[in-house]
Amino acid sequence: MSGLRVTVWNEGVHEAENDPPVMAEIYPEGIHGALAEGIRSELPTAAVRTALLADPEHGLTEEVLADTDVLLWWGHLAHGEVDAAVVDRVQRHVLGGMGLLVLHSGHFSQIFQRLLGTTCSLGWRDGAEQELVWTVAPHHPIAQGVPNPLVIPEQETYSEFFDIPAPDELIFLSSFDGGEVFRSGVTFFRGHGRIFYFSPGDQRYPVYHQPEIREIIANGIRWTAQPDRPRTPPEVAKLDRHWR
Amino acid sequence: MSGLRVTVWNEGVHEAENDPPVMAEIYPEGIHGALAEGIRSELPTAAVRTALLADPEHGLTEEVLADTDVLLWWGHLAHGEVDAAVVDRVQRHVLGGMGLLVLHSGHFSQIFQRLLGTTCSLGWRDGAEQELVWTVAPHHPIAQGVPNPLVIPEQETYSEFFDIPAPDELIFLSSFDGGEVFRSGVTFFRGHGRIFYFSPGDQRYPVYHQPEIREIIANGIRWTAQPDRPRTPPEVAKLDRHWR
Amino acid sequence: MSGLRVTVWNEGVHEAENDPPVMAEIYPEGIHGALAEGIRSELPTAAVRTALLADPEHGLTEEVLADTDVLLWWGHLAHGEVDAAVVDRVQRHVLGGMGLLVLHSGHFSQIFQRLLGTTCSLGWRDGAEQELVWTVAPHHPIAQGVPNPLVIPEQETYSEFFDIPAPDELIFLSSFDGGEVFRSGVTFFRGHGRIFYFSPGDQRYPVYHQPEIREIIANGIRWTAQPDRPRTPPEVAKLDRHWR
Amino acid sequence: MSGLRVTVWNEGVHEAENDPPVMAEIYPEGIHGALAEGIRSELPTAAVRTALLADPEHGLTEEVLADTDVLLWWGHLAHGEVDAAVVDRVQRHVLGGMGLLVLHSGHFSQIFQRLLGTTCSLGWRDGAEQELVWTVAPHHPIAQGVPNPLVIPEQETYSEFFDIPAPDELIFLSSFDGGEVFRSGVTFFRGHGRIFYFSPGDQRYPVYHQPEIREIIANGIRWTAQPDRPRTPPEVAKLDRHWR
């Protein structure tokens, strides 16, 4: 699976405003920069590009998506500023077979809500608490090599009820200091495409520099990628023959 | 479960145009009329109303939906004419706990696509062919009392690939004269709501007069109804305490 | 759903030995006695009987099972002493439509392993720690009326990886003081039968006296019961006709 | 994924008796021989061995299983003659991560029933009828390159209700001349292992020589294989620390 083409999308608003003020220190190249660096390190043959909300067409033109095997999505403050036409386009590519990794606060992105049909709401508290990520699907490729539990020293707390459809695969469950639990690693099949949602990672904590997190993201890219598939969404078909 | 409040929605375009010409003969009171009659017969205590595309707000005002335990949806020619604000409203009520039965060509309705996130496309051929409906979840309440297989003498043919997410429950599988197969009875949980898609039924065939079909629809209404649930969709929650 | 016939099975070994010594104090009528009392209180029309390992045929004769809508199973020390012929018989009744609630350390019972096909192993620690039970399927009948989270002050700790097949429905997730998580309320459909596994409850803690726990068990009984179903497991069928 | 170690198990009773009389003509090297030949052709780097009921320990010693990435299972007449200790051993290896492909009448094997917990019964008729295999999970690796539908000119008819748990993934649905439908390609995760059941193939028809069938079996081997996983089934774990 050499030469995967990966596009890391980030709204880039926290970075532009350096808010929170730790942002520039933790992610000097932006969250997209840290993600891209981790992917290049884990998947040396991958071709990684980044795209931002501020780019023309948010950097997600038809050409870019057609040249993308897996798209990562990170957003938080500006979900409403993403153009509906771009959401349509990304949805069409996912249904046609492009892999999609939705990260952390991307749970509230238009594209995630569009593909799942629910509010994608959850409970949250920001208190720099420990997150423990437990594997409940040890057979799954995304869980390979992951310690059980994986310890994230400081992280925003996410809690159930997480309003998503029952995932096609439940891979990781997290617990937090307050006793909260969260379905933190879940997959969905939609059309011809594969989606992996992974909740760890926040603008306040250096989670995307943690080696185990990078490994999970790399596993997720490998697992959602279908580089050999023609990029065609399912279509209505007028049946023109009988098979018996 | 007495006194369920059921709203039958129909676009009503075939009826208005008597196209196909058999329409007035098979469904003199409209598809909505036949559905309502069947429900009243099977669920004598239910309060059944009908609503049409041509009604103000398509007959689906906030008041009507708030007074509806289960909404049935039949549409075919005019999916694009349904106002987006009404689709938003129906989605919110489903996520809040209103039951939804989507019937036949309703697979291409905006509300079904919205709740599932996929194209909902399929293969089809109209040739008055026999449909056999097989039960693959005999434990399910919707399948109670249903013969295996159920024989529908004449029906439009629907075929895989049906572009839906893997259903939460697969209840019925159909086969057709040409050897096609179709996942004809499937359920989805979204938010607090329950959805049942059932494919038999078409403007050309008197399927909604068939007793077993009426029984399945009544089973589906009972199963999707949650009359005691407060109608509140999941919401984001700021956690204000620790549990340990 | 009046008059459900419920059989509470308990191995009764802890009770016979009063080991742990708190046993006689917490459960003077045995775990089966406390469960039966709770069910009678929550489901006043139910006919509740108890059965013990020490009874002839463990109290689970063909007659008893044929007269049982829902069987509860509690065991811990003596899983290996359950006669294989009784396990066969219970399995046959579950596949024929009898409801089964497997409780706590019953995860290691022969009948649970038999119906699931896996080791049903898990991680555990006994330290009188708090258990928080979170609802992740708010639409489910078993979750109706349950606080989120439900707090159990003291309980044995169970932890992932819990070696079960992916459940048909994931209803409850628990967390514990050490940060562990556990899929504590799960359902399985097998044959014509419905199974609910619920992990809270132990011989050292008065969990089965807690009102919310009693309510969940009553919900589970109502949900697994299929009193109107003929008690016939699926059988091989020689097809003697064509449907086309 | 070079060098997969594949063991093809066949009871070999039809072959020994040349009953049906076409057996020697269609499968002169036995069903196991035809399967092995197809695998060697599709997966040239695989090391393929065969094992028979008549072999000591049915050819499935601890050493053989420890040296097997994927086991194929074909049986029909002699399910009851398989030694329980061998079934235990195969189950342990599957739960530890060995891949398992169960073929056709293997649905009634002890190992399949053991891993699924149900009767695995179905409807059947032998009439040399056409089977159409439809893909309902086009995203799945096992479905890659498979025509939709795949046409098998002559085959035994299998029909629902197929008494299996809801599969973790439903990949193929078949229809037959009489209008029957069958879930013909399904996967299950059990413990650390992956199982693929595929129903086409019978002692009377040359199905295992058909190129598309060979391709599906090769896809199934690739997908169930986990050559890098330590072969350890899940075990109970006494937790010796707190994570918070």
The gist of it:
The first copy, chain A, is an alpha/beta fold. The first copy, chain A, is built from 7 helices and 10 strands.
How would you portray this structure in words?
The structure is a homotetramer. Chain A is an alpha/beta fold. Chain A has a domain at about 5-115 and about 185-225: Rossmann fold (3-Layer(aba) Sandwich), CATH 3.40.50.880. The first copy, chain A, has helices at about 15, 25, 30-40, 60-65, 85-95, 110-115, 210-225, and strands at about 5-10, 45-50, 70-75, 100-105, 125-135, 150-160, 170-175, 180-190, 195-200, 235-240. The first copy, chain A, starts with a strand and ends in a 6-residue tail after the last strand. Chains A and B meet through α6, β5, β8 and β10 of A and α6, β5, β8 and β10 of B.
Overall shape of chain A: globular
Q: Which structural class best describes the helix and strand composition of chain A?
A: alpha/beta
CATH topology of one domain in chain A: Rossmann fold
**CA distance, first residue to last residue of chain A:** 40 Å
| Main beta-sheet strand count, sense and barrel state of chain A | 9 strands, mixed
The appropriate CATH architecture of one domain in chain A is: 3-Layer(aba) Sandwich
CATH C-level label of one domain in chain A: Alpha Beta
Count the DSSP helices of chain A: 7
Oligomer type: homotetramer
User: Number of DSSP strands of chain A?
Assistant: 10
| Helix percentage range of chain A | 25-40%
Sequence stretches where pLDDT stays below 50 over 5 or more residues of chain A: none
What would the average pLDDT of chain A be, to the nearest integer?
A: 97
Q: In percent, how much strand structure appears in the residues of chain A?
A: 25-35%
**What does the radius of gyration of chain A come to?**
18 Å
